[in-house]
Amino acid sequence: MCGIAGLINLRTDAPNPDRELALKMARALRHRGPDGFGIYRDRHVALAHSRLSIIDLDGGWQPMANADETLWVCFNGEIFNYIELREELTAKGHHFRTKSDTEALIHAYAEYGEAMVDRLNGQWAFVIWDVKQRRAFFSRDRVGINPLFWTVHRGVLRFASEVKSLFQDPTIPRAISREGLDEALTFWAPIAPLTPYEGIQQIPPGAVATLDLDRDVAPRVSVRFRPEFPAGRAPGGDEAGLVSSVREAVRGGSTIRLRADVPVGSYLSGGLDSTIVAALIASNREVPLRTFSVEFAEREFDEAEYQRAAVAHLGTSHASIQCRDADIAGVFPEVVYHAEAPLLRTAPAPLFILARLVRQSGYRVVLTGEGADEFFAGYDIFREDRVRRFWARHPDSKLRPQLLLRLYPYLQRSPVAQVEMAKAFFGRNLAQTDDPFYSHRPRWDATSRIKLMLDPAMREGIGDTAAADRLREQLPRDFMRWTPLARAQYLEITTLLSGYLLSSQGERMMMANSVEGRFPFLDPNVMDVADALPDALKLRTLDEKHVLKRAMGDLLPPGVLERKKQPYRAPVVQPFFGSGTPDYVEACLSPDAIKDAGIWQAQPVAALIAKCRKTGGKSMSNTDDMAFCAILSTQLMARDIIQGARVVSAADDTSGRLGVDVDRVRDAAG
C-alpha cells in the first residue's frame, strides 16, 4: 500500500495547482511509501503519490496513465484479482504495458466506468482523473481498509490518505470537530463521512464519489456496498455444505492475498482467526511461513502460550516481541500522531511495535485475522445481546441473568464477577428489545459518560443522543427486518471495525512502519458467504464462531481450537503511572495545557489524574481507563496535529526517488 494526495481546482479562474505543495503532501506520507514519489500535474489537478513497492517493483510507479494519457490513476492499496481482470480486459482488446495491479484499474474504468468497482477484490482508495471529461472519480473498498480524506478550501479540493497531509497547506483551518468527537466518545470512532477534524471529511467505506468540474463544487458521494443480511432468518440449508462453503471461501481469500513480488508473512496472535490464516498459508508452502506476534509480561493480556502452540503445530519461522508498560508509554505520542484520532485504549501501541518488528525483519506484507469476529459473530457483545434478550422474556427470573457469568472469563476485573452489579449494568433498558441499538446500548451509554468531562463549549450543540440519532438516519431500510444478531453484526462492522479496528488499531499502525496488512476474512466472497449464514451456524447458543471451528478445526492445534475467546487487549493506565510518568504526560495534562486545548474541563481531568497517581493505574474502572486514554490522546492530537508541534522533517521533505514526473503546466509554459 502507499499514500496518495492531490489538489483539484474547482474554479476556472483558480491559479495552477501548486506543484510543490502536492509533493510536500506526498512526502508527509513517506512512512506509507518510502520507496519514492510521483507527480502528475495539469491546469486542473495535481496528483501525488508515495510508493511502497509490492507488485511489479520496476513498472508500478504512479501516478499511472493509459497509453494516450487521457486517464490517470493515483492508487493506494492492492487489487488481488488483477490477474483475472487483466485476462478479462485483454480479451476485450485492452493492451497492458506493466505487470502491476494499478494498470488494471485504468483499463477497468475505461471499459466499465464507475461499475468497475463491482469487479474488484481487494483493499483500496484511489482517484482516477479523466482528462477529456475533466472528471475525478474516487473509490474506497467495502469496509474502508484504506483511508481517504478530503476538504474544500478557497476553491480547491484537497485529498489525501491522511489528515496530516492535508495540513501541509498552512491555510487549512485546524480544529477538533464536535460531532466527530461526540461519535468517537460513543462508538470509539467517527462514522464516515465525519472525522475528528472540523471541515475534513472522509469517503465512506464502500463508497464512490464523482467530481465533474463542469458542474460540481464538491464530490458527489454514493455508497455502493454495505453489509446486507437476509430479511428474517436465513434459510438453514445443508449444514455440511455451508460449512464447506466457509472453508473454501476463507481458503480462497487467504490464497489470493499471497500475490506479491515481495515475501509475505502473517501475524499469529494465538487466537482462532490468525491461526486459521497462518494454517492455510503454511499448508501450501515449501519454505516455512514467517509469523510475528506480540507478548505481554502480565498474564491477563498475554497469549504467548497459545502462540507457541500454534508455531509448534504449524512449523512456522517465528519472531515475537514482548511489550512492556514502558514501551507502550514510549511510543504512544507516535501512535496518536499516526492514528490521527481519539483513542480510548492503548491497544494500537503494541501493534505499532509489532509492525516495527515486521519491518525490521525485512518484511513489508503480513496477513492478519481481522474481520472474523464481526462477520462470524465472535465478540462477547453478540453473546451479551443474546443473554439480555433471553433474560428480557422473563425479567424477574433469578436464573437467567446467571448466564452473564459465562461472559468475560479472561478478565481479572470482569464486569460480571459481581452478579448484582452485572444485573444493574446489563439490565438497564432490558425490556426495550425493539430498540435498533439494543445490542450496543450498554456499551455506548458507558462510553458516553466520558463526555461529561468535556469543556462546555465543546459539548455545545451535540446533545446526549446526537451520535446515535445520526447513525439511526443511516441505517439500511430493511435493518429492523434482520435478526437481532444480524443487526448487532451490522453495528459492529460499521462502527468499530471500519472506524477503529481497521484504522487506528490496524492499517495506520502498520503503514506507520511501511508495512501492508492484508485481511482474508474481508475477502468479498468470505463476507458474502458469512452474511448469508443462519445465525445458529455463527453463534450456536453461546458458542461464538461455531462454523469456523467446524470448518477449520482439523488445521488447528487442540489448545487453540478449544480455548475460550480472548480478545486482544493491552494495559491502559498503568504504563503511564506504574513506575514513572513520562514528561509528555505531565505537559499535555497540566491545567494550562488542558485550558489551551479547550477540549476538556480542567477540574475533572485533575481529579482523574490524581486517581491514576494514587492507584498507579491499577484497579481503575473501565470508564476511567477509557476517559484517561481519550483525554491523553486528544491532548496529543491538539499539540501535534492541531497546533502543528510535529512537522515533516527536512530530510523527509527532500529525499526519495521521483519515479513519475509529468508536469503539463510546466511543459506548456516552456
From TrEMBL:
**Which controlled-vocabulary keywords does the entry list?**
ATP-binding, Glutamine amidotransferase, Ligase, Nucleotide-binding
- What class does this enzyme belong to in the EC scheme? ligase
Enzyme Commission number(s) from the entry? 6.3.5.4
Q: In which pathway does it act?
A: Amino-acid biosynthesis; L-asparagine biosynthesis; L-asparagine from L-aspartate (L-Gln route): step 1/1
This entry's Gene Ontology molecular function terms read: asparagine synthase (glutamine-hydrolyzing) activity
Reactions this protein catalyses: L-aspartate + L-glutamine + ATP + H2O = L-asparagine + L-glutamate + AMP + diphosphate + H(+)
Q: Which PROSITE patterns match?
A: GATASE_TYPE_2
Q: Where is the Glutamine amidotransferase type-2 domain?
A: 2-214
Q: Which InterPro entries does its entry note?
A: Asn_synth_AEB (IPR006426), Asn_synthase (IPR001962), ASN_synthetase/amidase (IPR051786), AsnB_N (IPR033738), GATase_2_dom (IPR017932), Ntn_hydrolases_N (IPR029055), Rossmann-like_a/b/a_fold (IPR014729)
Q: Which family does it belong to?
A: Belongs to the asparagine synthetase family.
| Protein name (Swiss-Prot/TrEMBL) | asparagine synthase (glutamine-hydrolyzing)
Instruction: State the organism of origin.
Output: Sorangium atrum
Q: Which gene encodes it?
A: asnB
